[in-house]
Amino acid sequence: MAVVTGASRGLGAGMAERFAAVGVAVGLCARHRPSPPAAAGADVVTAEVDVTDAGAVDRFCAAVVDRFGRIDLWVNNAGLLAPIGPLRDADPGELRANVDANVLGVLYGSAAFARHVRARPGGGTLVNISSGAATTPYAGWAAYCASKAAVDQATRVVAAEEADAGLRAYAVAPGVVDTDMQASIRATPAERFPAVERFHELKRTDAYNSPAWVADHILRLAFDPPADAPTVQRVAAEPRPG
After folding, report:
1. pLDDT per residue over 143-152, tens digit each?
2. pTM > 0.90: yes or no
3. Is the pLDDT of residue 241 over 90?
4. Could you give the 3-state DSSP secondary structure of residue 104?
5. 241, part of any domain
6. Nearest alpha carbon to residue 87 among 44, 16, 17, 137
7. Centroid of chain to Cα 72
């Protein structure tokens, strides 16, 4: 049984579809209630949840546990890219919203799942969606880079704190997936985001990982993990045809 936050579109919706297609029951939440995957049947709980509200995250966790009895995999995927542009010009409200969603949202979800794992037999797998921006400084992405670096370190801490309960925690950078976020990046003028041409080139060459490819990587971490899997990792590039 897997939970995915930010599951109404993009990578989150794609992961949910893949999980359901291979027979994993899913609990899905986002700021707007996600649509159930076609393959999920009755094995789905959906909810409108603001991940920056710790109480709402806890109530969602409880609702999923009430429906399925336990959660085996929790994926903190919800997040924001904005603001894009020099930090000196950033709107303080947008900065706060970014950190609230990308950092506090991950902390709240991680805490809710850790409490659940300790409340029942067996371990579990936490996956926090990170980014190459956690280690590569992109001009124009101060909040996003900082928040993803925070996700990596928070995940290391959770892995250390919860190992005795059998909880395995990973920060996974999924590579570049062609979502609405990517469209927003490509629409940004170069004066606000100097690296934008790299993302246009990725579109021209279709050099993306698919949500299904990322989902399969996460499923292996959850249900068939290699003994030496690092806590912070990147998904391999998906093989291209030809």
Report:
1. 999 999 999 9
2. yes
3. no
4. helix
5. no
6. 137
7. 16
The verdict on whether omega for the bond into residue 83 sits within 30 degrees of 0, i.e. cis, is yes
Answer yes or no: is 127 within a domain: yes
- Active-site option among 108, 144, 170, 208: 144
Which domain, by its residues, includes 18?
Answer: 2-175+210-233
Token pair of 30 as six digits: 């986002």
Q: Can you tell me the distance from the alpha carbon of 45 to that of 63, in angstroms, rounded to the nearest whole number?
A: 8
Helix (H, G, I), strand (E, B) or coil at 109: helix
* Element spanning 232, H or E: strand 232-234
Average pLDDT over residues 76-99: 98
* Domain assignment of residue 221, yes or no: yes
Q: What span, in angstroms and rounded, lies between the C-alpha atoms of 214 and 10?
A: 12
Residue 162 tokens, joined: 């919860």
Number of domains present in the structure of the chain: 1
- Contact between residue 105 and residue 76 where contact means Cβ atoms under 8 Å apart: yes
54, amino acid identity: A
| pLDDT given for residue 183 in this prediction | 93
Q: In this structure, is residue 53 part of a structural domain?
A: yes
Which of 34, 36, 81, 49 has the alpha carbon at shortest distance from 177?
81
CATH code where residue 6 lies? 3.40.50.720
Tokens of 242: 């030809």
> 3-class SS at 30?
strand
Under a CB-based contact definition with an 8 Å cutoff, are residues 101 and 79 in contact?
yes
Over 70: is that where the pLDDT of 242 sits? no
pLDDT at 170 exceeding the cut of 90: yes
Q: Give the Cβ contact number of residue 9 at 10 Å.
A: 15
CB contact at 8 A, 27 and 71:
yes
**144 assigned to active site:** yes
